Amino acid sequence: MRKLIVWLLLVTMLMMTPSAYAEESFSMAGYDDEETYHVWTENLFFERMQEKTGLELELIQYTTAAKWQAAKDAMLAGSQELPDALFKADLTTQETVAWYEAGKLIDLKPYLAEHAPNLWALLESNPEWMKAITLPDGAIVALPYLDTLQFNNAMWINETWLKKLNLSVPTTAEELTEVLRAFRRTDMNGNGDKDDEVPFTFSSMWDLRFLLHAFGVNANDYYITMDENGTVSQILTTEENRAFITWLHQLWEEGLIDLNGFTAMRSAAAAPEEDTPVVYGVMLAPSPASLIHTSKMDQYVLLEPLFCDGKQVYRDLTGDVIRGTFAITSACKDPAALLRWVDFLYTEEGFILSEAGMEGVEFDVNDDGSWLWVDTTETLNKITLPSATIRTGSPTPGFTSVAFQQRLDDPTTQRVVSALMRLREIDSMPYPLVWLTQEQQNRVDELIMQIGSYAELQMVWFVTGDVELTDETWQEFCQKVHDLGVDEMVSIWQEAANAD
Q1: Which residues pair with 328 in a beta bridge?
Q2: Contacts of 351 (CB under 8 A, 6+ apart)
Q3: Which of 4, 200, 221, 469 is most buried as measured by Cβ atoms within 10 A of its Cβ?
Q4: CA 24, 25, 30, 32: dihedral to nearest 10 degrees?
């Protein structure tokens, strides 16, 4: 009888205490565009994560930005049921605040040290990351993607052409101009056609704005910059911008920059075949692979930011922190369990699983520690990456392991990664991540729509000579920019910086 009572007590305790091996079930919704070809319910990443964590997930994937935005709006309004978590959440800063203030998202900060120790260690080691994701009231509501290897818009120069002409790598705008002139007057690719070379290629005025660094200017997409004293200013009406546009017009007149640049449409699918002659001297692109065949990649090296008054500046396009990738809603009964799940992605093992899949299945590791894909490039792009990894598409919570990227057994990738890491030593954010109120964001969006539409077109016309850049036309440009509200926009960004 005593044994029976002990057995019944044991059974009762087991029924009351969750087993360490029992699978817990949660719902998770998010956005992964259909063009990534990810199907969450079939993707091996989630299956492998369940095996590692014991969490069973009901996956709710939205495959267009419009559908995901409509779903987020409905959840916030209360007309659609909340999932337990948002993954690849694509939350704006305003959405993060609005959801938190409405009680739809919970403050994760009290849980992080215990239940997300890998992320917490990264944040404690990098206080600027911690600050970037912390709301003004001290809450951490949405988790980030931490990326120290963004594929920034960089300058790549044809080193083979430089050596052919016995030229040094240019270090200033003046030196670059002379190199482009040399490229222009020579049949650099040796195909007998002196007119097919393009000394410098780009694809938009936005592209060209990265060259502002040659005049000591580092500004964001709002034409905003902030100095070391915290003073915010705009760069559109500055003499540096005028000198920059004047220089671009000179390059345009001499045929040194791509005359199709303002109308060019680039895509990886349009990259030339292997036997296509190389025609570009310098290109603005995240990687030369977007414009030339990979077999010609070794011709190009990073053209480091040009010097102005003895200094180098360059725009860090996105910074290390991409906000709003993961959040836990007020519907979740066990936030700690979901945090343990997502915390795995802030480890190297978790990054590898999301980026490359599983060793011995999607990739192999060589004796020297380098790794390579198992499948051919075609199979990799069409099948392996869509079905076994999750990194492409909307930003994934986690971090980038630069060390793993650099170990890929591919010289081209290693060269690009090393070059971009060198660029990271120089570039910087022109303006820090701040928290705008919804009212501020709405007004800034309205202002930049007006200012940007006018300024971009007018600067293109100055570059091409459709409008001559004179003292009179420059003053008209500056006055129009002020009339459209650039000073008000500066004041909004200054207020946000002061409050940060």
Answers
A1: 85
A2: 345, 398, 399, 400, 401, 404
A3: 200
A4: 80
The answer to whether 156 touches 288, Cβ cutoff 8 Å, is yes
Quick: pLDDT tens for 356-409. Answer: 999 999 999 999 999 999 999 889 999 999 999 999 999 999 999 989 988 999
Task: Please state, in angstroms and rounded to a whole number, the distance separating the CA atoms of residues 97 and 91.
Answer: 10
DSSP 117-132: HHHHHHHHH-HHHHHH
The model's pLDDT over 79-137, given as tens digits with 9 standing for 90+, comes to 999 999 999 999 999 999 999 999 999 999 999 999 999 999 999 999 999 999 999 99
Q: What residues does 372 pair with on adjacent strands?
A: 364
Q: Are 86 and 326 in contact (CB under 8 A)?
A: yes
H-only helix segments in 293-356? 335-343, 348-355
Lookup: tokens for 134: 């912390």
Residues 236, 102: Cα–Cα separation, whole Å: 39
* Alpha-carbon gap, residue 51 to 304, rounded angstroms: 45
Segments of 346-435 assigned E as strands: 363-365, 371-373, 398-399
Residues whose CB falls within 8 Å of the CB of residue 312, separated by 6 or more in sequence, listed in order: 213, 304, 305, 306, 426
Cα four-point dihedral sign 235, 238, 240, 243: positive
Give Cα separations from 493 to 133, 137, 220 (angstroms).
18, 19, 12
- Distance, in Å, from the CA atom of 284 to the CA atom of 303, rounded to the nearest integer, reads 10
Secondary element (H or E) of residue 285: strand 280-285
Residues in the chain: 500
Q: Which residues pair with 364 in a beta bridge?
A: 372
What's residue 267's pLDDT?
A: 44
CA–CA distance, 86 with 26 (Å, rounded to integer): 11
Residue 267 near residue 255, CB atoms below 8 Å: no
pTM: predicted TM-score of the whole model, two decimal places: 0.87
The tokens describing 224, both together, are 């905003």
Distance of CA 151 to the CA centre of its chain: 7
Going by C-alpha positions, the residue among 293, 241, 289, 255 that lies closest to residue 419 is: 289
Give φ, ψ of 466 to 5 degrees: -60, -30
What is the C-alpha radius of gyration for the chain, rounded to an integer number of angstroms? 26
Residue whose structure tokens are 């097919």? 196
> SS3 string of 447-500?
HHHHHHHHHHHHHHHHHHCCCCCCHHHHHHHHHHHHHCCHHHHHHHHHHHHHHC
Q: Report the candidate in 396, 409, 312, 481 with the shortest Cα–Cα distance to residue 49.
A: 396
Q: If DSSP states are collapsed to H, E and C, what string results for 102-171?
A: CCCECCCHHHHHHHCHHHHHHHHHCHHHHHHHCCCCCCCCEEEEECCCCCCCEEEEEHHHHHHCCCCCCC
